Inverse folding.
């Protein structure tokens, strides 16, 4: 493989001006597989929920909407939600996912899931500085493949480059620990996952990030379960790179500094 595949991404800035920026595909197997997926999706609109282009701030209202869609009893939630309640909601999403994903016009299912994680990252951690992901939702589903992405994780994130986000239907080991999920090997194996699904998603890094070492509280807890979890997924390791970095997909071939621009389309 040679690093010679170029493409453009179009954005709109805060003045509503369109900007087209050049990128060059990274020389790796995971980047090539991702590029083939995007070729099929380039003319299809992105999914607004998956790409965080809808308002996810009112989890209470979104929870009610989900219950109505799922035809289950809606229970009033306290104004201030605790992590245990968020875990229960995530469990509800997991339990009903297979059934509800088969229904037509099922955006309430995925909106509920995104809103739970939005609340966790933005409300419980006000200093969280997330980077928006671009995805095609159910249109990208038929193209996704099982692929071990962790060996392709970069040692650091470089501002302006394009990366593949972790996007499993679960949590990373650190998220599992931070969310106070059960101290149980079976549940850990079920819910905490490495990056084993290659989905047609991406993000443009807005900051340089050098992953820091994992917290000792987590590593002390994880060492009890770690080897069995690694064996379960047949992977050799899990460290700060796996937890806090991402596979490099493409290099920025421009000097423009993205801030609040919105994705418009990708041209391959």
């Amino acid at each position: 493989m040679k690093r010679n595949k170029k493409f453009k991404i179009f954005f709109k800035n805060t003045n509503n001006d369109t900007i087209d920026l050049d990128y060059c595909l990274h020389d790796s197997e995971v980047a090539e597989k991702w590029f083939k997926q995007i070729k099929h999706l380039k003319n299809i609109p992105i999914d607004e929920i998956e790409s965080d282009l809808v308002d996810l701030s009112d989890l209470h209202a979104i929870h009610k909407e989900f219950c109505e869609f799922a035809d289950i009893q809606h229970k009033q939630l306290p104004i201030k939600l605790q992590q245990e309640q968020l875990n229960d909601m995530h469990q509800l999403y997991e339990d009903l996912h297979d059934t509800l994903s088969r229904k037509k016009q099922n955006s309430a299912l995925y909106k509920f899931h995104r809103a739970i994680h939005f609340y966790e990252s933005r409300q419980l951690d006000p200093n969280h500085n997330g980077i928006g992901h671009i995805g095609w939702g159910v249109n990208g589903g038929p193209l996704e493949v099982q692929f071990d992405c962790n060996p392709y994780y970069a040692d650091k994130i470089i501002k302006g480059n394009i990366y593949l986000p972790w996007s499993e239907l679960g949590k990373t080991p650190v998220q599992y620990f931070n969310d106070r999920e059960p101290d149980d090997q079976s549940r850990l194996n079920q819910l905490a996952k490495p990056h084993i699904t290659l989905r047609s998603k991406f993000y443009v890094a807005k900051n340089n990030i050098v992953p820091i070492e994992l917290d000792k509280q987590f590593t002390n807890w994880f060492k009890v379960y770690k080897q069995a979890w690694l064996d379960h997924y047949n992977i050799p390791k899990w460290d700060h790179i796996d937890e806090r970095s991402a596979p490099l997909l493409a290099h920025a071939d421009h000097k423009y500094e993205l801030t609040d621009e919105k994705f418009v389309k990708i041209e391959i």
Summary: The two ends are 17 Å apart (CA to CA). Residues 53-131 form one domain. Residues 124-131 have pLDDT under 50 and may be disordered.
